[in-house]
Amino acid sequence: MKRRMLHRGPDAGGTYCSEDGAVVLGHRRLSILDLSEAGSQPMTSHSGRYVIVYNGEIYNHRALAEQLRADGYVCEFRSTCDTEVLLEAIEAYGIEKTLCLAKGMFALAVYDTREKTLQLARDRMGEKPLYYGMVNGSFVFASDLGCISVLDGFQNPINRKVLDIYFSYGYIPAPHTIYEGIYKLEPGSVLTVCSPYNQWTETRYWDIRNVARQGQANLFCGTEEEAADELERLLKEAIREQMVADVPVGAFLSSGIDSSAIVALMQAVHQGTVRSFTIGTDSRSLNEAAEAKEIARHLGTEHTELYISPADAKAVIPQLGVMYGEPFADVSEIPTYLVSRMTREHVTVSLSGDAGDELFSGYNSYTFVERYWNWSRTVPHALWEPISRGILRTPLQKNHLLRMMAKYLGARTPEELYVRGETRDPYSLTLAREHELCPYAHSEYPSGFMPQKVHNIMLMNQLMYLPDDILVKVDRAAMAVSLETRVPFLDRDVVEFAWSLPLGYLRQNGVGKQVLRRVLYRYVPRELMERPKKGFSIPIEKWLLEPELRSWAESLLDPARIRQQGLLNAEAVQKMWSDFVHKGQWERQIWFVLMFQQWMDSRGRTEISFN
Protein backbone atom coordinates (compact mmCIF):
# COMPACT_ATOMS: atom_id res chain seq x y z
CA MET A 1 0.00 0.00 0.00
CA LYS A 2 2.84 2.41 0.85
CA ARG A 3 4.61 1.67 -2.40
CA ARG A 4 1.44 2.40 -4.38
CA MET A 5 1.23 5.91 -2.88
CA LEU A 6 4.92 6.81 -3.07
CA HIS A 7 4.04 9.85 -5.20
CA ARG A 8 1.97 11.28 -2.32
CA GLY A 9 4.91 11.03 0.08
CA PRO A 10 8.32 10.60 -1.52
CA ASP A 11 10.45 11.87 1.38
CA ALA A 12 10.05 9.18 4.06
CA GLY A 13 7.90 6.28 5.18
CA GLY A 14 7.15 4.36 8.33
CA THR A 15 5.02 1.57 9.78
CA TYR A 16 3.44 0.89 13.18
CA CYS A 17 2.16 -2.47 14.37
CA SER A 18 0.26 -2.90 17.63
CA GLU A 19 1.55 -5.39 20.20
CA ASP A 20 -1.22 -7.85 19.39
CA GLY A 21 -0.71 -7.43 15.64
CA ALA A 22 -4.33 -6.41 15.14
CA VAL A 23 -3.68 -2.84 13.94
CA VAL A 24 -1.07 -1.77 11.40
CA LEU A 25 -0.60 1.85 10.32
CA GLY A 26 1.53 2.91 7.35
CA HIS A 27 2.61 6.35 6.19
CA ARG A 28 4.40 8.07 3.32
CA ARG A 29 5.65 11.58 4.03
CA LEU A 30 5.87 14.72 1.93
CA SER A 31 7.93 16.89 4.29
CA ILE A 32 6.52 20.42 4.65
CA LEU A 33 7.07 21.41 8.31
CA ASP A 34 10.05 20.24 10.36
CA LEU A 35 11.97 18.31 7.72
CA SER A 36 13.88 16.36 10.37
CA GLU A 37 13.08 12.84 11.59
CA ALA A 38 11.27 14.42 14.55
CA GLY A 39 8.32 14.93 12.21
CA SER A 40 8.22 11.33 10.97
CA GLN A 41 5.09 9.20 11.08
CA PRO A 42 3.48 7.05 12.38
CA MET A 43 3.91 9.24 15.49
CA THR A 44 3.22 8.20 19.08
CA SER A 45 1.95 10.67 21.69
CA HIS A 46 4.10 11.66 24.65
CA SER A 47 2.20 9.26 26.93
CA GLY A 48 2.45 6.40 24.46
CA ARG A 49 -1.33 5.96 24.36
CA TYR A 50 -2.13 7.32 20.88
CA VAL A 51 -0.56 6.68 17.47
CA ILE A 52 -1.37 8.80 14.41
CA VAL A 53 -0.94 8.74 10.65
CA TYR A 54 -1.99 11.94 9.00
CA ASN A 55 -2.05 13.66 5.60
CA GLY A 56 -2.52 17.42 5.43
CA GLU A 57 -1.74 20.60 7.35
CA ILE A 58 -3.13 22.22 10.50
CA TYR A 59 -2.64 25.89 9.73
CA ASN A 60 -3.28 27.18 13.26
CA HIS A 61 -1.05 24.56 14.92
CA ARG A 62 1.04 27.25 16.63
CA ALA A 63 -2.04 28.64 18.41
CA LEU A 64 -3.08 25.10 19.36
CA ALA A 65 0.39 24.45 20.75
CA GLU A 66 0.16 27.56 22.92
CA GLN A 67 -3.26 26.46 24.18
CA LEU A 68 -1.87 23.02 25.09
CA ARG A 69 0.95 24.68 27.03
CA ALA A 70 -1.39 27.13 28.76
CA ASP A 71 -3.75 24.31 29.76
CA GLY A 72 -0.83 22.34 31.20
CA TYR A 73 -1.00 19.37 28.83
CA VAL A 74 2.40 19.82 27.19
CA CYS A 75 5.52 21.47 28.62
CA GLU A 76 7.76 21.03 25.61
CA PHE A 77 7.29 19.71 22.09
CA ARG A 78 9.81 17.41 20.50
CA SER A 79 9.39 18.91 17.03
CA THR A 80 8.06 21.99 15.24
CA CYS A 81 5.60 20.06 13.07
CA ASP A 82 1.83 20.25 13.17
CA THR A 83 1.49 16.45 13.49
CA GLU A 84 2.75 16.44 17.07
CA VAL A 85 0.47 19.32 18.05
CA LEU A 86 -2.55 17.61 16.48
CA LEU A 87 -1.77 14.33 18.24
CA GLU A 88 -1.28 15.89 21.67
CA ALA A 89 -4.46 17.93 21.25
CA ILE A 90 -6.43 14.77 20.45
CA GLU A 91 -5.11 13.15 23.64
CA ALA A 92 -5.85 16.26 25.69
CA TYR A 93 -9.22 17.34 24.34
CA GLY A 94 -10.59 14.38 22.39
CA ILE A 95 -10.81 14.12 18.62
CA GLU A 96 -14.03 16.05 17.99
CA LYS A 97 -13.13 19.08 20.13
CA THR A 98 -9.66 19.13 18.57
CA LEU A 99 -11.04 19.09 15.05
CA CYS A 100 -13.45 21.89 15.91
CA LEU A 101 -10.49 23.95 17.15
CA ALA A 102 -8.25 23.09 14.19
CA LYS A 103 -8.14 25.00 10.93
CA GLY A 104 -6.71 22.99 8.09
CA MET A 105 -7.02 20.24 5.53
CA PHE A 106 -6.48 16.67 6.60
CA ALA A 107 -7.23 12.99 6.50
CA LEU A 108 -6.09 11.17 9.61
CA ALA A 109 -6.24 7.93 11.56
CA VAL A 110 -5.51 7.80 15.28
CA TYR A 111 -5.26 4.58 17.27
CA ASP A 112 -6.00 4.43 20.99
CA THR A 113 -3.78 1.63 22.31
CA ARG A 114 -5.66 1.52 25.64
CA GLU A 115 -9.21 1.27 24.30
CA LYS A 116 -8.21 -0.59 21.11
CA THR A 117 -10.15 1.97 19.09
CA LEU A 118 -9.30 3.41 15.68
CA GLN A 119 -10.74 6.75 14.58
CA LEU A 120 -10.60 8.24 11.08
CA ALA A 121 -11.37 11.89 10.33
CA ARG A 122 -11.56 14.16 7.30
CA ASP A 123 -11.40 17.96 6.98
CA ARG A 124 -14.47 20.16 6.83
CA MET A 125 -14.80 20.68 3.07
CA GLY A 126 -13.14 17.52 1.76
CA GLU A 127 -9.76 18.78 0.54
CA LYS A 128 -7.95 15.58 1.50
CA PRO A 129 -9.24 12.12 0.54
CA LEU A 130 -9.92 9.20 2.87
CA TYR A 131 -11.21 5.79 1.77
CA TYR A 132 -12.21 2.88 3.99
CA GLY A 133 -14.03 -0.45 3.99
CA MET A 134 -13.70 -4.20 4.29
CA VAL A 135 -11.33 -6.39 2.26
CA ASN A 136 -11.16 -10.13 2.91
CA GLY A 137 -12.74 -9.66 6.34
CA SER A 138 -10.33 -6.93 7.44
CA PHE A 139 -10.98 -3.21 7.90
CA VAL A 140 -8.73 -1.11 5.65
CA PHE A 141 -8.27 2.60 4.95
CA ALA A 142 -6.04 4.80 2.79
CA SER A 143 -5.62 8.26 1.25
CA ASP A 144 -5.50 6.66 -2.19
CA LEU A 145 -8.11 4.21 -3.43
CA GLY A 146 -5.41 2.47 -5.45
CA CYS A 147 -3.66 1.51 -2.19
CA ILE A 148 -6.68 -0.57 -1.23
CA SER A 149 -7.18 -2.18 -4.62
CA VAL A 150 -3.59 -3.55 -4.70
CA LEU A 151 -3.96 -5.52 -1.46
CA ASP A 152 -3.26 -9.22 -1.83
CA GLY A 153 -6.45 -11.06 -2.62
CA PHE A 154 -8.48 -7.90 -3.27
CA GLN A 155 -11.62 -9.07 -5.04
CA ASN A 156 -14.24 -6.47 -4.16
CA PRO A 157 -16.51 -6.34 -7.21
CA ILE A 158 -17.24 -3.19 -9.17
CA ASN A 159 -20.20 -1.35 -7.69
CA ARG A 160 -22.78 -1.51 -10.49
CA LYS A 161 -25.14 0.70 -8.49
CA VAL A 162 -22.96 3.77 -9.08
CA LEU A 163 -22.29 3.33 -12.79
CA ASP A 164 -25.29 5.35 -14.00
CA ILE A 165 -24.36 8.10 -11.52
CA TYR A 166 -20.84 8.15 -12.91
CA PHE A 167 -22.04 8.27 -16.52
CA SER A 168 -24.31 11.18 -15.59
CA TYR A 169 -21.72 13.33 -13.79
CA GLY A 170 -18.31 12.03 -14.81
CA TYR A 171 -17.33 11.27 -11.20
CA ILE A 172 -18.59 9.14 -8.30
CA PRO A 173 -19.96 11.16 -5.36
CA ALA A 174 -19.32 10.32 -1.71
CA PRO A 175 -19.86 8.14 0.18
CA HIS A 176 -19.59 5.72 -2.74
CA THR A 177 -16.62 4.43 -4.71
CA ILE A 178 -16.31 2.25 -7.77
CA TYR A 179 -15.92 -0.80 -5.50
CA GLU A 180 -18.51 -2.55 -3.37
CA GLY A 181 -17.65 -2.41 0.32
CA ILE A 182 -15.26 0.55 -0.06
CA TYR A 183 -16.41 4.07 0.79
CA LYS A 184 -15.30 7.68 0.92
CA LEU A 185 -15.43 9.27 4.36
CA GLU A 186 -17.57 12.37 3.93
CA PRO A 187 -16.20 15.84 4.76
CA GLY A 188 -16.47 16.98 8.37
CA SER A 189 -16.86 13.42 9.64
CA VAL A 190 -15.26 11.10 12.19
CA LEU A 191 -15.45 7.32 11.79
CA THR A 192 -14.93 5.14 14.87
CA VAL A 193 -13.98 1.45 14.63
CA CYS A 194 -13.65 -0.72 17.70
CA SER A 195 -12.07 -4.14 18.10
CA PRO A 196 -12.61 -6.59 16.33
CA TYR A 197 -12.74 -3.83 13.67
CA ASN A 198 -15.64 -5.06 11.56
CA GLN A 199 -18.26 -2.41 12.38
CA TRP A 200 -18.13 1.37 12.56
CA THR A 201 -20.08 4.46 13.51
CA GLU A 202 -19.89 7.85 11.82
CA THR A 203 -20.48 11.28 13.37
CA ARG A 204 -20.13 14.84 12.09
CA TYR A 205 -18.14 17.49 13.91
CA TRP A 206 -18.94 20.16 11.26
CA ASP A 207 -21.65 20.35 8.59
CA ILE A 208 -21.79 22.89 5.74
CA ARG A 209 -25.59 22.63 5.78
CA ASN A 210 -25.73 23.94 9.34
CA VAL A 211 -23.19 26.63 8.49
CA ALA A 212 -25.30 27.79 5.54
CA ARG A 213 -28.51 27.99 7.55
CA GLN A 214 -26.92 29.68 10.54
CA GLY A 215 -25.14 32.17 8.32
CA GLN A 216 -28.31 33.20 6.55
CA ALA A 217 -30.16 33.39 9.87
CA ASN A 218 -27.49 35.80 11.19
CA LEU A 219 -26.69 38.04 8.23
CA PHE A 220 -23.70 40.35 8.12
CA CYS A 221 -25.08 43.80 9.00
CA GLY A 222 -22.41 46.05 7.53
CA THR A 223 -22.23 47.75 4.15
CA GLU A 224 -20.82 46.10 1.03
CA GLU A 225 -17.56 47.96 1.56
CA GLU A 226 -17.39 46.76 5.16
CA ALA A 227 -18.06 43.21 3.95
CA ALA A 228 -15.11 43.55 1.58
CA ASP A 229 -12.97 44.81 4.48
CA GLU A 230 -13.84 41.76 6.56
CA LEU A 231 -13.34 39.33 3.69
CA GLU A 232 -9.93 40.86 2.97
CA ARG A 233 -8.95 40.53 6.63
CA LEU A 234 -10.04 36.89 6.82
CA LEU A 235 -8.34 35.95 3.57
CA LYS A 236 -5.10 37.62 4.61
CA GLU A 237 -5.15 35.72 7.88
CA ALA A 238 -5.84 32.43 6.07
CA ILE A 239 -3.09 33.09 3.54
CA ARG A 240 -0.53 33.98 6.21
CA GLU A 241 -1.22 30.67 7.92
CA GLN A 242 -1.20 28.70 4.68
CA MET A 243 2.12 30.16 3.55
CA VAL A 244 3.87 28.76 6.62
CA ALA A 245 6.23 25.99 5.45
CA ASP A 246 9.83 24.89 5.63
CA VAL A 247 9.87 24.42 1.86
CA PRO A 248 9.26 26.83 -1.06
CA VAL A 249 5.66 28.05 -1.56
CA GLY A 250 3.99 29.48 -4.68
CA ALA A 251 0.59 29.86 -6.29
CA PHE A 252 -1.32 28.98 -9.44
CA LEU A 253 -2.32 32.08 -11.41
CA SER A 254 -4.80 32.35 -14.26
CA SER A 255 -6.33 35.59 -15.46
CA GLY A 256 -9.46 34.97 -13.38
CA ILE A 257 -10.84 36.72 -10.31
CA ASP A 258 -10.19 33.90 -7.83
CA SER A 259 -6.52 33.05 -8.37
CA SER A 260 -5.67 36.73 -8.97
CA ALA A 261 -7.20 37.64 -5.59
CA ILE A 262 -5.22 34.91 -3.82
CA VAL A 263 -1.92 35.91 -5.44
CA ALA A 264 -2.56 39.63 -4.80
CA LEU A 265 -3.17 38.99 -1.10
CA MET A 266 -0.18 36.64 -0.88
CA GLN A 267 2.01 39.40 -2.24
CA ALA A 268 0.44 41.86 0.23
CA VAL A 269 1.15 39.75 3.33
CA HIS A 270 4.49 38.23 2.28
CA GLN A 271 7.76 40.06 2.91
CA GLY A 272 9.47 38.54 -0.09
CA THR A 273 8.42 37.96 -3.69
CA VAL A 274 5.67 35.44 -4.37
CA ARG A 275 6.21 32.74 -7.02
CA SER A 276 3.30 32.43 -9.48
CA PHE A 277 2.73 29.79 -12.17
CA THR A 278 0.63 29.72 -15.33
CA ILE A 279 0.31 27.44 -18.33
CA GLY A 280 -0.68 28.61 -21.77
CA THR A 281 -1.44 27.33 -25.23
CA ASP A 282 -0.82 28.60 -28.74
CA SER A 283 -4.58 28.86 -29.29
CA ARG A 284 -5.56 32.56 -29.07
CA SER A 285 -9.15 31.75 -28.14
CA LEU A 286 -8.14 29.50 -25.23
CA ASN A 287 -4.93 31.11 -23.98
CA GLU A 288 -4.97 33.24 -20.82
CA ALA A 289 -1.23 33.18 -20.19
CA ALA A 290 -0.63 36.67 -21.62
CA GLU A 291 -3.28 38.20 -19.35
CA ALA A 292 -1.96 36.26 -16.34
CA LYS A 293 1.56 37.51 -17.07
CA GLU A 294 0.27 41.08 -17.14
CA ILE A 295 -1.41 40.60 -13.75
CA ALA A 296 1.76 39.02 -12.35
CA ARG A 297 3.82 41.97 -13.63
CA HIS A 298 1.46 44.43 -11.95
CA LEU A 299 1.62 42.52 -8.64
CA GLY A 300 5.38 42.07 -8.86
CA THR A 301 5.49 38.28 -8.54
CA GLU A 302 8.29 36.06 -9.79
CA HIS A 303 6.29 34.54 -12.61
CA THR A 304 6.83 31.29 -14.49
CA GLU A 305 4.80 30.21 -17.48
CA LEU A 306 4.81 27.13 -19.63
CA TYR A 307 3.26 26.90 -23.06
CA ILE A 308 2.05 23.37 -23.65
CA SER A 309 1.51 21.65 -26.95
CA PRO A 310 -1.21 19.17 -27.88
CA ALA A 311 1.45 16.47 -27.63
CA ASP A 312 2.11 17.43 -23.98
CA ALA A 313 -1.55 17.13 -23.11
CA LYS A 314 -2.11 13.94 -25.08
CA ALA A 315 0.80 12.26 -23.30
CA VAL A 316 -1.01 12.66 -19.97
CA ILE A 317 -4.19 10.87 -21.03
CA PRO A 318 -2.99 7.24 -20.64
CA GLN A 319 -1.95 8.01 -17.03
CA LEU A 320 -5.33 9.32 -15.87
CA GLY A 321 -6.91 5.99 -15.05
CA VAL A 322 -4.35 5.12 -12.39
CA MET A 323 -3.90 8.72 -11.18
CA TYR A 324 -7.44 8.93 -9.78
CA GLY A 325 -7.90 5.38 -8.52
CA GLU A 326 -11.41 5.17 -9.94
CA PRO A 327 -13.19 6.53 -13.04
CA PHE A 328 -12.96 10.34 -13.15
CA ALA A 329 -13.73 12.38 -16.25
CA ASP A 330 -13.34 16.13 -15.67
CA VAL A 331 -11.30 17.00 -18.77
CA SER A 332 -9.61 19.89 -16.95
CA GLU A 333 -7.68 17.22 -15.03
CA ILE A 334 -5.19 17.37 -17.92
CA PRO A 335 -4.13 21.06 -17.64
CA THR A 336 -4.33 20.76 -13.83
CA TYR A 337 -1.75 17.99 -13.92
CA LEU A 338 0.48 19.88 -16.35
CA VAL A 339 0.51 23.10 -14.32
CA SER A 340 1.17 21.06 -11.18
CA ARG A 341 4.10 19.26 -12.79
CA MET A 342 5.63 22.55 -13.91
CA THR A 343 5.03 24.17 -10.50
CA ARG A 344 6.65 21.26 -8.64
CA GLU A 345 9.93 21.95 -10.43
CA HIS A 346 10.15 25.18 -8.41
CA VAL A 347 8.14 24.80 -5.17
CA THR A 348 6.69 22.08 -2.92
CA VAL A 349 3.49 23.89 -1.91
CA SER A 350 1.11 25.87 -4.12
CA LEU A 351 -1.93 27.91 -3.14
CA SER A 352 -4.90 27.87 -5.50
CA GLY A 353 -8.02 29.94 -6.13
CA ASP A 354 -10.40 26.99 -6.11
CA ALA A 355 -13.82 27.34 -4.43
CA GLY A 356 -14.29 31.04 -5.26
CA ASP A 357 -17.17 30.26 -7.62
CA GLU A 358 -18.89 28.00 -5.10
CA LEU A 359 -18.54 30.37 -2.14
CA PHE A 360 -19.24 33.67 -3.85
CA SER A 361 -21.86 32.66 -6.44
CA GLY A 362 -19.66 32.85 -9.50
CA TYR A 363 -21.27 30.31 -11.81
CA ASN A 364 -23.65 31.43 -14.55
CA SER A 365 -25.79 28.39 -13.76
CA TYR A 366 -26.97 30.13 -10.58
CA THR A 367 -28.59 32.88 -12.61
CA PHE A 368 -29.86 30.43 -15.24
CA VAL A 369 -31.72 28.31 -12.67
CA GLU A 370 -33.43 31.30 -11.10
CA ARG A 371 -34.46 32.91 -14.41
CA TYR A 372 -35.55 29.68 -16.10
CA TRP A 373 -37.51 28.57 -13.07
CA ASN A 374 -39.33 31.92 -12.79
CA TRP A 375 -40.19 31.74 -16.49
CA SER A 376 -41.31 28.11 -16.49
CA ARG A 377 -43.59 28.61 -13.48
CA THR A 378 -45.76 30.95 -15.52
CA VAL A 379 -47.33 27.70 -16.78
CA PRO A 380 -48.43 24.95 -14.32
CA HIS A 381 -46.11 21.96 -14.12
CA ALA A 382 -49.05 19.69 -14.90
CA LEU A 383 -49.02 21.11 -18.44
CA TRP A 384 -45.25 21.00 -18.91
CA GLU A 385 -44.81 17.42 -17.68
CA PRO A 386 -46.68 15.62 -20.50
CA ILE A 387 -44.77 17.73 -23.06
CA SER A 388 -41.49 16.73 -21.43
CA ARG A 389 -42.49 13.08 -21.26
CA GLY A 390 -43.70 13.10 -24.85
CA ILE A 391 -40.37 14.35 -26.17
CA LEU A 392 -38.21 12.06 -24.04
CA ARG A 393 -40.18 8.93 -24.98
CA THR A 394 -40.35 9.51 -28.72
CA PRO A 395 -37.85 9.93 -31.58
CA LEU A 396 -38.00 13.68 -30.88
CA GLN A 397 -35.48 13.11 -28.10
CA LYS A 398 -32.80 12.50 -30.72
CA ASN A 399 -32.74 16.26 -31.29
CA HIS A 400 -30.28 17.67 -28.77
CA LEU A 401 -32.10 20.98 -28.19
CA LEU A 402 -35.49 19.33 -27.81
CA ARG A 403 -34.07 16.75 -25.42
CA MET A 404 -32.49 19.41 -23.21
CA MET A 405 -35.66 21.49 -23.22
CA ALA A 406 -37.69 18.44 -22.23
CA LYS A 407 -35.32 17.69 -19.36
CA TYR A 408 -35.73 21.22 -18.00
CA LEU A 409 -39.49 21.35 -18.45
CA GLY A 410 -39.94 18.15 -16.47
CA ALA A 411 -38.31 19.59 -13.33
CA ARG A 412 -40.59 19.90 -10.33
CA THR A 413 -38.32 22.11 -8.20
CA PRO A 414 -35.43 24.54 -8.76
CA GLU A 415 -33.10 21.96 -7.23
CA GLU A 416 -34.25 19.30 -9.69
CA LEU A 417 -33.87 21.81 -12.53
CA TYR A 418 -30.26 22.40 -11.51
CA VAL A 419 -29.48 18.69 -11.33
CA ARG A 420 -31.04 18.09 -14.74
CA GLY A 421 -28.89 20.83 -16.19
CA GLU A 422 -25.70 19.46 -14.65
CA THR A 423 -26.14 15.78 -15.48
CA ARG A 424 -25.59 14.10 -18.82
CA ASP A 425 -27.91 11.43 -20.19
CA PRO A 426 -26.25 8.08 -19.31
CA TYR A 427 -27.60 6.84 -22.68
CA SER A 428 -28.43 3.37 -21.34
CA LEU A 429 -24.73 2.55 -21.38
CA THR A 430 -24.83 0.09 -18.51
CA LEU A 431 -26.30 -3.37 -18.71
CA ALA A 432 -29.64 -4.05 -17.04
CA ARG A 433 -29.60 -2.71 -13.49
CA GLU A 434 -30.22 -5.15 -10.67
CA HIS A 435 -30.66 -2.44 -8.03
CA GLU A 436 -31.91 1.09 -7.62
CA LEU A 437 -29.35 3.91 -7.75
CA CYS A 438 -27.41 4.62 -4.58
CA PRO A 439 -28.50 7.72 -2.68
CA TYR A 440 -26.07 10.65 -2.92
CA ALA A 441 -25.97 14.35 -2.07
CA HIS A 442 -28.14 15.63 -4.93
CA SER A 443 -30.68 12.82 -4.76
CA GLU A 444 -31.21 13.44 -1.04
CA TYR A 445 -31.15 17.24 -1.04
CA PRO A 446 -34.46 18.54 0.38
CA SER A 447 -36.26 20.98 -1.89
CA GLY A 448 -36.31 24.50 -0.46
CA PHE A 449 -33.81 23.76 2.32
CA MET A 450 -32.57 27.34 1.95
CA PRO A 451 -35.10 30.14 1.33
CA GLN A 452 -33.25 31.52 -1.73
CA LYS A 453 -33.10 29.41 -4.92
CA VAL A 454 -29.52 30.49 -5.62
CA HIS A 455 -28.42 29.58 -2.10
CA ASN A 456 -29.80 26.08 -2.57
CA ILE A 457 -27.77 25.60 -5.74
CA MET A 458 -24.65 27.02 -4.08
CA LEU A 459 -25.07 24.62 -1.17
CA MET A 460 -25.64 21.65 -3.49
CA ASN A 461 -22.39 22.50 -5.25
CA GLN A 462 -20.53 22.66 -1.95
CA LEU A 463 -21.97 19.31 -0.91
CA MET A 464 -20.98 17.40 -4.04
CA TYR A 465 -19.40 19.10 -7.06
CA LEU A 466 -16.74 20.92 -5.01
CA PRO A 467 -15.52 17.98 -2.86
CA ASP A 468 -16.11 15.15 -5.35
CA ASP A 469 -14.96 16.83 -8.58
CA ILE A 470 -12.99 20.06 -8.09
CA LEU A 471 -11.04 19.09 -4.98
CA VAL A 472 -10.48 15.53 -6.21
CA LYS A 473 -9.08 16.86 -9.47
CA VAL A 474 -6.68 19.27 -7.77
CA ASP A 475 -5.49 16.90 -5.04
CA ARG A 476 -4.84 13.88 -7.27
CA ALA A 477 -3.23 15.85 -10.11
CA ALA A 478 -0.93 17.76 -7.75
CA MET A 479 -0.04 14.85 -5.49
CA ALA A 480 0.81 12.77 -8.56
CA VAL A 481 3.90 14.98 -8.77
CA SER A 482 4.31 15.35 -4.98
CA LEU A 483 2.98 18.93 -4.89
CA GLU A 484 0.85 19.99 -1.94
CA THR A 485 -1.99 22.35 -2.82
CA ARG A 486 -3.75 24.62 -0.33
CA VAL A 487 -7.06 26.43 -0.79
CA PRO A 488 -7.39 29.68 1.21
CA PHE A 489 -11.04 30.15 0.22
CA LEU A 490 -11.83 26.98 2.20
CA ASP A 491 -10.48 28.36 5.46
CA ARG A 492 -13.15 27.71 8.09
CA ASP A 493 -13.65 31.38 8.94
CA VAL A 494 -13.83 32.44 5.29
CA VAL A 495 -16.46 29.78 4.51
CA GLU A 496 -18.57 30.72 7.53
CA PHE A 497 -18.33 34.43 6.72
CA ALA A 498 -19.28 33.86 3.06
CA TRP A 499 -22.48 32.15 4.16
CA SER A 500 -23.41 35.15 6.33
CA LEU A 501 -23.47 37.55 3.38
CA PRO A 502 -26.72 38.77 1.82
CA LEU A 503 -27.21 37.44 -1.70
CA GLY A 504 -27.00 40.98 -3.08
CA TYR A 505 -23.40 41.19 -1.84
CA LEU A 506 -22.60 38.18 -4.03
CA ARG A 507 -24.62 38.70 -7.21
CA GLN A 508 -25.78 41.89 -8.92
CA ASN A 509 -27.35 42.02 -12.39
CA GLY A 510 -26.35 38.44 -13.06
CA VAL A 511 -22.66 39.02 -12.18
CA GLY A 512 -21.29 37.04 -9.24
CA LYS A 513 -18.43 37.41 -6.76
CA GLN A 514 -19.19 41.07 -6.13
CA VAL A 515 -17.62 41.23 -2.67
CA LEU A 516 -14.52 39.37 -3.87
CA ARG A 517 -14.19 41.75 -6.82
CA ARG A 518 -14.18 44.68 -4.41
CA VAL A 519 -11.25 43.13 -2.56
CA LEU A 520 -9.34 42.34 -5.76
CA TYR A 521 -9.77 45.82 -7.27
CA ARG A 522 -7.87 47.24 -4.32
CA TYR A 523 -4.77 45.51 -5.72
CA VAL A 524 -5.37 45.00 -9.44
CA PRO A 525 -6.87 47.65 -11.77
CA ARG A 526 -10.40 46.84 -12.83
CA GLU A 527 -9.48 47.10 -16.51
CA LEU A 528 -7.00 44.23 -16.14
CA MET A 529 -9.75 41.94 -14.84
CA GLU A 530 -12.86 42.95 -16.74
CA ARG A 531 -11.93 41.35 -20.02
CA PRO A 532 -13.71 38.54 -21.85
CA LYS A 533 -13.10 35.29 -19.98
CA LYS A 534 -11.43 32.72 -22.21
CA GLY A 535 -10.86 29.81 -19.89
CA PHE A 536 -8.13 27.26 -20.41
CA SER A 537 -9.67 24.18 -21.95
CA ILE A 538 -8.56 21.10 -23.83
CA PRO A 539 -10.15 20.55 -27.29
CA ILE A 540 -10.56 16.86 -26.53
CA GLU A 541 -13.41 16.45 -29.00
CA LYS A 542 -11.05 17.53 -31.78
CA TRP A 543 -8.11 15.42 -30.62
CA LEU A 544 -10.18 12.25 -30.40
CA LEU A 545 -10.75 12.41 -34.15
CA GLU A 546 -7.02 12.59 -34.89
CA PRO A 547 -5.27 9.29 -35.75
CA GLU A 548 -3.26 8.77 -32.55
CA LEU A 549 -6.03 9.31 -30.01
CA ARG A 550 -8.70 7.86 -32.25
CA SER A 551 -6.75 4.59 -32.36
CA TRP A 552 -6.40 4.68 -28.56
CA ALA A 553 -10.13 5.36 -28.12
CA GLU A 554 -11.29 2.68 -30.51
CA SER A 555 -9.07 0.14 -28.80
CA LEU A 556 -10.70 0.94 -25.45
CA LEU A 557 -14.18 0.87 -27.01
CA ASP A 558 -13.66 -2.41 -28.85
CA PRO A 559 -16.98 -4.31 -28.59
CA ALA A 560 -15.27 -7.62 -27.79
CA ARG A 561 -13.41 -6.01 -24.87
CA ILE A 562 -16.58 -4.39 -23.54
CA ARG A 563 -18.57 -7.62 -23.79
CA GLN A 564 -15.83 -9.49 -21.94
CA GLN A 565 -15.93 -6.93 -19.13
CA GLY A 566 -19.68 -7.48 -18.79
CA LEU A 567 -20.50 -4.01 -17.45
CA LEU A 568 -21.48 -1.85 -20.43
CA ASN A 569 -23.80 -2.28 -23.38
CA ALA A 570 -21.37 -2.74 -26.28
CA GLU A 571 -23.96 -1.80 -28.91
CA ALA A 572 -24.91 1.41 -27.07
CA VAL A 573 -21.24 2.36 -26.73
CA GLN A 574 -20.62 1.79 -30.43
CA LYS A 575 -23.68 3.85 -31.36
CA MET A 576 -22.48 6.70 -29.12
CA TRP A 577 -19.00 6.57 -30.68
CA SER A 578 -20.47 6.58 -34.19
CA ASP A 579 -22.69 9.58 -33.33
CA PHE A 580 -19.66 11.37 -31.89
CA VAL A 581 -17.46 10.71 -34.92
CA HIS A 582 -20.04 11.43 -37.62
CA LYS A 583 -22.44 13.89 -35.97
CA GLY A 584 -20.39 15.60 -33.25
CA GLN A 585 -22.78 14.39 -30.53
CA TRP A 586 -22.16 13.07 -27.00
CA GLU A 587 -18.85 14.92 -26.59
CA ARG A 588 -18.82 14.81 -22.80
CA GLN A 589 -20.39 11.38 -22.50
CA ILE A 590 -17.84 9.74 -24.79
CA TRP A 591 -15.08 11.12 -22.58
CA PHE A 592 -16.88 9.63 -19.55
CA VAL A 593 -16.84 6.24 -21.28
CA LEU A 594 -13.20 6.52 -22.32
CA MET A 595 -12.07 7.43 -18.81
CA PHE A 596 -14.05 4.48 -17.45
CA GLN A 597 -12.39 2.15 -19.94
CA GLN A 598 -8.96 3.69 -19.28
CA TRP A 599 -9.47 3.02 -15.57
CA MET A 600 -10.54 -0.56 -16.29
CA ASP A 601 -7.35 -0.98 -18.33
CA SER A 602 -5.14 0.40 -15.52
CA ARG A 603 -6.47 -1.78 -12.68
CA GLY A 604 -3.90 -3.83 -10.83
CA ARG A 605 -0.87 -1.59 -11.34
CA THR A 606 1.02 -1.59 -8.05
CA GLU A 607 3.92 0.77 -8.74
CA ILE A 608 3.37 3.98 -10.63
CA SER A 609 5.30 7.00 -11.84
CA PHE A 610 3.72 10.05 -13.44
CA ASN A 611 6.90 11.86 -14.44
Key terms:
single chain, 611 residues, alpha/beta, 6-stranded antiparallel beta sheet, 5-stranded parallel beta sheet, globular
Taken from the alpha-carbon principal axes, the silhouette is globular
| Distance between the amino and carboxyl termini | 20 Å
Radius of gyration: 24 Å
Category by helix and strand content: alpha/beta
Query: What is the topology, as strand order, of the major beta sheet?
Result: 3-4-5-6-10-11
The quaternary organization reads as single chain
Query: Spans with pLDDT under 50 lasting ≥5 residues?
Result: none
The tally of helices reads 27
Mean pLDDT over the full residue set: 92
The helix fraction, in percent, is 40-55%
Total strand count, please?
Answer: 16
Q: Strand percentage, roughly?
A: 5-15%
| Largest β-sheet summary | 6 strands, antiparallel
What does this structure look like?
The chain has 611 residues and is of the alpha/beta class. The chain has 27 helices and 16 strands. The strands form 4 sheets. A 6-stranded antiparallel beta sheet has the order 3-4-5-6-10-11, with helices on one face. Strands 14-13-12-15-16 form a 5-stranded parallel beta sheet, sandwiched between helices. The protein has a 3-stranded antiparallel beta sheet with strand order 8-7-9. A hairpin with a 2-residue loop joins strand 7 (131-135) and strand 8. The longest helix has 27 residues, at 453-479.
